[in-house]
Design brief:
582 residues; Growth Hormone, Chain: A; 2 domains; 60% helix; two-stranded antiparallel ribbon; 3-stranded antiparallel β-sheet; mainly alpha; transmembrane transporter activity
Length: 582
């Protein structure tokens, strides 16, 4: 671990003291993203006059693209720049995008003219949309550098080889998500209120100013950070193992795994937290570590041709990534279900009675406050109550494994979409009973609080599923690929948004009838069958949960040989730590 020399001696870098500087960056990024995305469908339909399904698909496509860019940021961080500099540069790019986005909301010529009453609204032209999308693209590129790196960078501040710190990593993920959720809560209340009641200029200008302040704060904390050097392109290493295994595909497998190639010096930069041990699965890739007669003559310290010969550690890196794939894929559909809160659930809320008093009306976009509150309450309960109780029965420091935690999240998400369908039936019956089924712009006399259960259940599901997902990727990914592992988390979100767009388009197309009826009506959701769409999502999630159970049952945790340092001792104790890390 790196150390700093100061007037009071030597002090280790990293630890809890770095959290305020790291969290400041994450908080403002979430204020900016959530503050706009939560209410974005209102902006696209009311300000840019887009049709509902086009606006919904634009929103999920944008979310999908923004969630793919972390692959780029993670690659740069793991291969060349390191996490600190990747976060810093990405934050500056994000700042430029936010300034541009704020200007597009302030300047009237960058939006179509407003319309009143029954007047036909003019949709935004190509030029106006292009300015909007360029601004959002800059924001997406900035997010791509922040999202995968900031969570891994924060976890890096805790040394896994230090007994005093190695149990703080999983606690960090809980509180990272808590802080992120708290900032999202502010976004869906304060910022959405500003957007709806004061204007989009201020609604976007506030997070833009905060983003600038966070960049300064994050850079100011540089002397305190524990910075891990990039270890070269992880994707190149994976490809090298694959190529080497293919070249040696005709060689017979060695009788003893101990005969496979090992080189601690070569792997030193990519195994600082521990060396991966050989596993019996996917034996084909072991051929990349078979030493041929020609390769036996390599001199001590000589680097082999990595396109023909790789170490066991590098082979196991590839195996670890492949093993994570099925678990990763199971999380996609949960994001598809979750994303409906910012599309159809929001449109539901807009048709219902949102008055708290005669003079105050809850913005429809702020309904996700119940998701945030449920998520934050669940995280606090989980960390302070559930874990200590579960620890007594399981013997695990984190209470239950991240695979069990994710499974609980899947079940609750299924319940959320099931409930959403029944709430839609109730909303439509209220519209029919009051003769408002043909009046899409009239307020149905049914309280918007009937939607609280579906919003809250999604929040509880996220507290279990998303944090479990983060823990899974960080813990099970090779150490040198942890930024990339965090990118896989965001990639699942990306695919979930794209799948939502595909599902909406397919349902809209195949449920259409010659009389103009449709499950997802653009003009009037009360005359559609939105409840069928929710129940279709429920059935898909049930099938997905069965798939997940099979994957979790067959999953093999990565075996890791780590070096532990006892407190107050410089001696190293070498030991194998397996599934007990879960």
């Amino acid at each position: 671990m790196e150390e700093i020399k100061g007037s009071h001696g030597r002090r280790r870098k990293g630890g809890l003291v770095t959290m305020p500087f790291i969290f400041a960056n994450e908080v403002t990024e979430k204020l900016a993203v959530v503050g706009f995305n939560t209410n974005m469908i209102s902006y696209l339909t009311s300000e840019l006059h887009m049709p509902l399904t086009k606006a919904a698909n634009s929103l999920t496509n944008l979310g999908g693209t923004a969630s793919m860019t972390p692959l780029i940021g993670a690659f740069i961080a793991d291969s060349y720049a390191g996490r600190f500099w990747t976060i810093t540069v990405a934050s500056i790019i994000y700042q430029i995008g936010m300034i541009s986005l704020t200007l597009s909301a302030v300047l009237p010529q960058l939006r179509p003219p407003s319309c009143k009453g029954d007047e036909v609204c003019k949709e935004a032209d190509a030029g106006q949309l292009s300015i909007l999308y360029v601004s959002l693209l800059l924001g997406a590129l900035g997010s791509g550098g922040i999202r995968p790196c900031v969570v891994a960078f924060g976890a890096d501040q805790f040394d896994e080889t230090d007994p005093k710190q190695n149990t703080k990593t999983w606690t960090y993920f809980n509180w990272y998500y808590f802080v992120m959720g708290a900032s999202m809560l502010v976004a869906v209340t304060v910022l959405v209120y500003i957007q709806d009641n004061i204007g989009w200029g201020w609604g976007l200008g506030v997070p833009t100013i905060l983003m600038f302040m966070s960049i300064i704060t994050f850079i100011f904390g540089y002397p305190l950070y524990r910075n891990l050097d990039p270890a070269g392109s992880p994707f190149t290493r994976l490809v090298q193992v694959l190529v080497a295994a293919c070249k040696k595909r005709n060689l017979p497998m060695v009788s003893d795994p101990k005969l496979l190639y090992q080189n601690d010096e070569l792997d030193a930069s990519i195994s600082m937290g521990g060396k991966l041990l050989h596993t019996k699965q996917m034996k084909f890739f072991d051929k990349a570590a078979i030493v041929t007669e020609e390769e036996k003559h390599l001199k001590s310290g000589q680097t082999p041709d990595l396109w023909r010969l790789n170490t066991v550690h590098r082979v196991e890196e590839l195996k670890s990534v492949i093993r994570m794939g099925p678990i990763w894929a199971a999380g996609i559909l949960l994001i598809t279900a979750y994303s409906q809160q910012n599309t159809f659930s929001l449109i539901q809320a807009k048709t219902m009675n949102r008055h708290l008093t005669k003079s105050f009306e809850i913005p429809a976009g702020s309904m996700t406050v119940f998701t945030m509150l449920a998520m934050l309450s669940t995280i606090a309960f989980y960390d302070r109550v559930f874990i200590p109780v579960a620890r007594r029965f399981s013997g695990l420091d984190r209470g239950i494994s991240f695979l069990h935690r994710m499974g609980i999240g899947f079940v609750i998400s299924i319940l959320a979409t099931l409930v959403a369908g029944f709430m839609e039936v109730k909303r439509k019956n209220a519209a029919l009973a009051n003769g408002l089924i043909d009046h899409p712009h009239s307020t149905i006399p049914i309280s918007v609080f009937w939607l609280v259960p579906q919003y809250s259940l999604h929040g509880v599901a996220e507290a279990f599923m998303s944090i479990g997902h983060l823990e899974f990727f960080y813990d099970q990914a090779p150490e040198s690929m942890r930024s990339s592992a965090m990118a896989f988390f965001w990639l699942a979100i990306s695919f979930g948004n794209y799948l939502s767009s595909l599902l909406v388009s397919m349902v809209h197309k195949f449920s259409a009838k010659p009389d103009g009826s449709n499950w997802l009506r653009n003009d009037n959701i009360s005359k559609g069958k939105l409840e069928y769409f929710y129940w279709l999502l429920t059935l898909l999630q049930v099938a997905n949960f069965i798939y997940y159970l099979c994957c979790a049952k067959l999953y093999t945790y990565k075996p890791l040989q780590i070096q532990k340092k006892e407190a107050g001792s410089s001696e190293e104790d070498h030991g194998v730590e397996l599934a007990d890390r879960v």
